[in-house]
Design brief:
This protein is of the alpha+beta class. Helices cover 17% and strands 24% of the residues. It has one helix and five strands, in the order H-E-E-E-E-E. The strands form two sheets. It has a three-stranded antiparallel beta sheet with strand order 3-4-5, with no helix packed on it. Strands 1-2 form a two-stranded antiparallel sheet. Strand 4 and strand 5 form a beta hairpin. The protein is elongated and about 55 Å long. 2% of the residues are buried. InterPro entries: CRIM1, VWF_dom. It holds the Pfam family VWC2L_2nd. Keywords: Signal.
């Protein structure tokens, strides 16, 4: 036997299906900042995050391990690079 509450919930769910609408998507609260569903941000150069219906989903960049002496990581970048050779910016390898 359906109670009044059960029937109301069933009708609400049916109305959502019939009209093609869905419940509002939930935003994310991260370190005091609010991100809308689908909004992305980079908390640091190596991490990419997105808000998915109230959940913070993040991926961390995996850097390839280079084989060059004196590698460096440019400001704002994630992965280290090999330095350029010479004043004209020629690469230290031959083409």
């Amino acid at each position: 036997m359906l109670t009044f509450t059960s029937m109301a919930l069933l009708l609400s769910a049916s109305a959502l299906l019939v009209h093609g609408t869905s419940p509002p998507l939930v935003s994310c609260q991260v370190k005091g900042k609010t991100y809308r569903h689908g909004e992305s941000w980079k908390p640091d150069p190596c991490t990419f995050c997105v808000c998915e219906d109230g959940k913070e989903l993040c991926a961390v960049t995996m850097c390839a391990i280079g084989d060059c002496p004196h590698s460096f990581t440019p400001e704002g970048q994630c992965c280290p690079m090999c330095p350029l050779a010479g004043a004209m910016g020629r690469r230290p390898w031959k083409r």
